[in-house]
Each structure stands twice: as structure tokens, then as C-alpha cells.
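Problem 12. The chain below contains 134 residues. Write out its predicted structure in C-alpha cell notation.
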Amino acid sequence: MSGLVLKLAPKERVLINGAVIENGERRSRLAIMTPNANILRLRDAIHPEEVNTPVRRVCYIAQLVLSGDADPREARQQLLRGIEQLSQVLTDHDSRTQLNHASQAVLDGQTYQALKALRSLLPREERLFAAKPQ
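Solution.
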């Protein structure tokens, strides 16, 4: 068996190809067999009012593609431009690795993988903003 496996908590919601699906009372596993399905865990979703940092802005663009609210072709350019801008600021090895993964995923049409790589930068960005002198 291949494909993406989602492990869902009770009552957890997930967006799959534009449809919101809610898990039942027990934990469950779903195997997504369709390649390139657009999937977004709603607990991980960034809400519009939370799009207030550079990494969050780029994540939000990827999220809009996954939710079906943005054209993948148009968003591709925005994502690549955003990743390039982030790479000019986040210059450490780990960040560069994640940005390279995100960029390659965008080029391969793997928006979920791009979002996953970008989300890994959120804690680092949070630490950088916390350390910034006032």
C-alpha cells in the first residue's frame, strides 16, 4: 500500500479536494490512494487574520491551493517568489534545506509537501521575531 496515510483524532476535520470530512468518535486512519489529492488538516490551517509574518504568508498561499481557493498555476509563481524572498533572510543551513525542499515540491506540483516544508520554518521565524529588539 502506498500513498498518504492520515491518522485522525476523534472529531478531527480534514479538507480533501474541497470537501470537509469529519472523523467519528474514535481515532482512525485513512489511506489516500489518489496521487496529487489536495489535503489540508483543518487543525493546521492558518486563518486569514493569522497571516501576519513572511513565512505565514507563503504558507497561506500554499494552503489556498490545497483548499481549491487559488489557481495552482498562478500560485506557483507567488510561492516561488515568496520562497526566494525567504531564502534571502533565512540563511542558516536548516532553513535553506527546508526552503530547497519547498521550492522543489512547488516545481514538482506537490503543494502539500511544499506546505509541510514551509510550516517547519514557523517555529524558527517565531524565535527570530521574539529575539528582535523592540
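Discussion. The first helix runs from residue 54 to 67. Students who got a different answer should revisit the alignment rule from Section 12.3.
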